[in-house]
Amino acid sequence: MVLMNSFKYPESDIKCQSEDVKVFLDKKDLGTGTLFVSESTLCWKQREDVGWTIGYTNISLHAISKDTNIHPSDCVYIMTDGRLTMPGDTPPSEEDKDDSDVESNTDISEILLIPANDESISQIYEAIKVCQELNPDPMDEYDEDLSEDNDDNLYEDAEDDMEEAEYEIRERGGGDADIDDLARRIQSNSVDVHFDYRSNGNDDEDFQDAD
């Protein structure tokens, strides 16, 4: 995915505005301009309307970098989901590149934000973090809803099993003690299934939450 872009002044509240911010886009020096961290977009303006604007759902990672291999001084590092191109840039042709080059050159972009004032680095980082939380990825919400639906179905299935088993026990002449024992076993099994479902492919923190 290629993100053709240009500067648009933020239409939402600005959480952080920083002057004299140097920007590198995919190792290309774009110069120095003004950065706007608004609630809906991250924008950088060099002069007049020259710059870029990206939505937070297109930001896959942002961090404070102290790695001198990335830049000699500390900076805010941003990776975008999609390649960011400036007006006038020609996107790379897939026909001229093999599959590995296409993936590495068109699927992401790296942005470095280097403010003149080092103290602004943490302020910019925190503002982006807050605004990203205000703009969750719709797919993440869908996955969360799907997970909750599956969890509900697990418990509904367990309740259905309980009702069917209770009916069979009573038909065979079983008493309340047999039913209580069955309830404990089904409840125990449903917790195990729920735990396995949540922990599948997740990290240790999920296991702690499940405990």
TrEMBL record:
One of its GO terms (biological process) is spliceosomal snRNP assembly. InterPro entries: ICln (IPR003521), ICln/Lot5/Saf5 (IPR039924), PH-like_dom_sf (IPR011993). Residues 92-104, 138-166, 202-211 have a biased composition (Acidic residues). The keyword Nucleus applies. One of its GO terms (cellular component) is pICln-Sm protein complex. The keyword Repressor does not apply. Residues 82-105, 136-211 are annotated as: Disordered. Keywords: Cytoplasm, Nucleus. It comes from the Eukaryota. Belongs to the pICln (TC 1.A.47) family. Involved in both the assembly of spliceosomal snRNPs and the methylation of Sm proteins. Chaperone that regulates the assembly of spliceosomal U1, U2, U4 and U5 small nuclear ribonucleoproteins (snRNPs), the building blocks of the spliceosome, and thereby plays an important role in the splicing of cellular pre-mRNAs. Most spliceosomal snRNPs contain a common set of Sm proteins SNRPB, SNRPD1, SNRPD2, SNRPD3, SNRPE, SNRPF and SNRPG that assemble in a heptameric protein ring on the Sm site of the small nuclear RNA to form the core snRNP (Sm core). This is Methylosome subunit pICln. It comes from Phyllotreta striolata. The lineage of its organism: Eukaryota, Metazoa, Ecdysozoa, Arthropoda, Hexapoda.
